[in-house]
Design goal:
Layout: H1 15-24, H2 30-40, H3 55-64, E1 71-77, E2 83-88, E3 94-102, E4 105-109, E5 113-115, E6 130-133, H4 136-151, E7 157-162, H5 172-183, E8 195-199, H6 203-211, E9 217-221, H7 227-233, H8 236-239, H9 242-256, E10 260-266, H10 274-284, E11 291-296, H11 310-322, E12 326-329, H12 343-353
Binding site for S-adenosyl-L-methionine: 166-167, 198, 221-223, 298
GO molecular function, one term: 4 iron, 4 sulfur cluster binding
Cofactor: [4Fe-4S] cluster
Amino acid sequence: METTEKKPFVYDLSLEQWQEWVKQNGESAFRAGQIFDWLYVKRVSSFEEMSNLPKALREKLLAAFSFVTLKEVAKQQSQDGTVKFLFELEDKNAIETVIMKHSYGNSVCVTTQVGCRIGCTFCASTLGGLKRNLAPGEIIAQVVKAQTLLDATDERVSSIVIMGIGEPFENYDAVMTFLNVMIHPKGLNIGQRHITVSTSGIVPNIYRFADEATQINLAISIHAPNDQLRSKLMPVNRRFPFADLIEACKYYVAKTGRRITFEYALMGGVNDQAEHAEELAQVLKGLPLSHVNLIPVNFVMERNFVRTSRDDIFAFQRILEKHKINATIRREQGSDIAAACGQLRAKHMEASAR
């Protein structure tokens, strides 16, 4: 029985890779820039629309690449303007993408994997485990789709957070290709300091990322001030213990001169007590420029955690600030539309299984 090999996505290539592709296919070098322009400036959805390319080149592209299919399965809009999408991929797997409205512009939260194997005990993204990594083009297509939607109101994507479903540093190469296209002046041209990558603490790739020497922001999900508690909440800590993570963070700060944001989801009676704040402050004292983003945990039906009270959140923040640790409380968005990452997908998976 004959099988056809799956074609790569047209968004899978960086400009440098396009330049190599046109060269190998006997085309003039400038064609790479034209293709890139059609994809990211004009944002076409077919090769036929690339009208300044010769027909023969368009036929080569059609034979070699496919466009990413992001079929909108569900769309939820919050009262605060947050829009959450559930997209179905070519293989029927589903991913989430979120557009968040801020006073400073529109931010897109992208997904990097179908599911997640990290296993954080408070997170809906891990329900069902990891299915597969996304291709670079499937990550890029989420931002292109968001920008195309914003085009209707003459708005643009001004920032990106890689905090959707999955662990970005377990799909490292695809994420780096994604970032290359996002920041390229001929791509979507988004400022590096307007992009944040969030990791649960994949230590070897924190070192790699430090050596990339970018201006892209790094956020690390920490959620506990010690090994014992962090291993209970985040099994990844058993692979990459707390001390190793902090050493990698010190290397990153020394190498880049940039601060790290530590994300700390507050869970009532679990990690939100005064002693936790005191211990966290001692850990972070050795890390210059560190910043803690306190996150009131979202309720997930399949998990048992409850939200920390407002008074306790502020008390936790005050303790950190007493020790000169910069701490902010994340502004909630989309709380009326299954805000926790992975919840929409989890509902879809449950309905599909019936």
